[in-house]
Structures are given as C-alpha cells and as structure tokens.
C-alpha cells in the first residue's frame, strides 16, 4: 500500500507508550496497535487531530505516501 503509517516512529521520538497515547486520544490500545501496523483502511480526521495534538506533530509526520514501484 502506498500510504505508510509512521506512528511507531513518532511514539519512539516522543518517548510515549501506546497505552498513554490511547488514553490521551480516547481510543483503545488495540486501535493504536492497528494504526501502527498499517492494518486499517482509514483514520478519522478527529482521531488524527488528537494524535497530532498529543504527540505535538503534523499529520505528515505520521502518514507518508510511497508510490508503488510498478
């Protein structure tokens, strides 16, 4: 998939645990895990906004577009 989720990178840079982020954002730790693994089809803008606020980052720090090589 050409959209890569770098949430794990941002969590490491900010030294924030998934559990703590889940509490701040108001979603389950399971959903944070799914986001980190890229196994979601989409993310709500309000959830993305809360994640960015909690991690003090921009959406582009979390989501990256990498075109398929073909």
From TrEMBL:
Record-annotated HTH cro/C1-type domain positions:
19-62
- Pfam families recorded: HTH_26
- Coiled-coil annotated residue ranges, if any: none
Which PROSITE patterns does the entry mention?
Answer: HTH_CROC1
Q: What highest taxon heads this organism's lineage? A: Bacteria
Q: Which PANTHER family match?
A: DNA-BINDING PROTEIN (PTHR37301:SF1), DNA-BINDING PROTEIN-RELATED (PTHR37301)
Q: What name does UniProt use for this protein?
A: Helix-turn-helix transcriptional regulator
């Amino acid at each position: 998939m050409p959209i890569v989720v770098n949430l794990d990178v941002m969590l490491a840079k900010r030294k924030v645990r998934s559990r703590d982020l889940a509490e701040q954002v108001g979603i389950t730790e399971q959903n944070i895990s799914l986001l980190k693994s890229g196994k979601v089809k989409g993310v709500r803008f309000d959830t993305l906004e809360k994640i960015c606020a909690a991690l003090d980052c921009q959406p582009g720090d979390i989501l990256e577009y990498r075109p398929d090589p073909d």
